[in-house]
Amino acid sequence: MAKKSKKQQAGGTPATVALTAAGVSHTVHSYEHDPAHPSYGEEAAEAMGVSPDRVFKTLVADVDGILTVAVVPVSGTLDLKALAAAVGGKRAAMADPALAERTTGYVRGGISPLGQRKKLPTVLDESAGAHPTICVSAGRRGLEVELAPADLATLTKAVLAPIGRG
Predict the structure, then answer these.
(1) The pTM is what?
(2) What is the rounded end-to-end Cα distance, in angstroms, of the chain?
(3) Cα torsion angle, 95, 144, 34, 46, sign
(4) Tens digit of pLDDT for each residue in 51-71?
(5) In sequence order, which ranges of the chain are alpha helices (DSSP H)?
(6) 48: exposed, middle or buried (Cβ count in 10 Å: 0-12, 13-18, 19+)
(7) SS3 of 123, please?
(8) How many CA atoms does the CB half-sphere of 44 hold within 13 Å?
């Protein structure tokens, strides 16, 4: 098991540690997670009082055998065909949740596009650019990080593409 840094021991996650190390301006929002809530993303938007168009969920898909991260607004769904096209693939399907958790190092409902155990190709829905800041999971349920979409794209080396359906 990897040794945790002092920042992680103090309550940071790999995502927040990565943001701090990169010197990226961000705000961490925490809220009490309700396990009975039907949608992690909608719960986050409600708890923070933020439009669901500005809160983005991190999904892991299998594109032609390659795990790929899709970051889309919680107010919509992922267009798998558009995701495949964005990375030059032919077919995409949602990844096995257990494989997504093992590969990213995060649990479902808390998968962050930042600080993943294994760096995966990432696609950010182009709608993110319509907002000065967006919120994504900070690495655990009940914890979100708010940052500029351009900073998220830079840190994850994300491709911007229309992969969300409203």
Answers:
(1) 0.91
(2) 41
(3) negative
(4) 999 999 999 999 999 999 999
(5) 6-9, 14-22, 40-48, 80-86, 97-104, 149-156
(6) middle
(7) strand
(8) 31
